[in-house]
Amino acid sequence: MVTGTNVTHIDGGWAIMSYMGAGDNDCMVSDKSAQWDKFRRTLIGTSDGVNHFNEINHFFGLTPGFDVIGFYVGVVRELKKMGY
After folding, report:
1. Tens of pLDDT along 16-52?
2. Across-strand partners of 42?
3. 13 Cβ partners below 8 Å, 6+ apart?
4. Measured in whole angstroms, how far is the alpha carbon of residue 44 from the centre of its chain?
5. Which of 54, 1, 51, 56 is nearest to 30 (CA)?
6. pTM value?
7. Does the chain have fewer CB atoms within 10 Å around its N or its C terminus?
8. How many CA atoms lie within 13 A of 72 on its CB side?
9. Rg (Cα) of the chain, in Å, rounded?
10. In this structure, are residues 45 and 7 in contact, taking their beta carbons and an 8 Å threshold?
11. 3-state secondary structure the chain
């Protein structure tokens, strides 16, 4: 399952977490914290970035540079191939 995330732009949440020593993060969860069990990969965003709220489609489908629905369709496909 895909558990890691990363942003390519700096916003308030990313900057605060980085300042606190979290390293790469999605504004809510550090990469290190997200890597458990069968870690698959880290998402790298476009110039608009990918953050925690984009990943969960929190902004009513407004996720510039990141195809939320396509991402989760891909996750389901991976799980199906793994026998789930």
Report:
1. 777 777 777 777 777 788 787 877 777 766 555 666 6
2. 4
3. 25, 27, 28, 51, 52
4. 8
5. 51
6. 0.56
7. C
8. 6
9. 13
10. yes
11. CCCECCCCCCCHHHHHHHHCCCCCECCCCEHHHHCCCCCCCECCCCCCCCCHHHHCCCCCCCCCCCCHHHHHHHHHHHHHHCCC
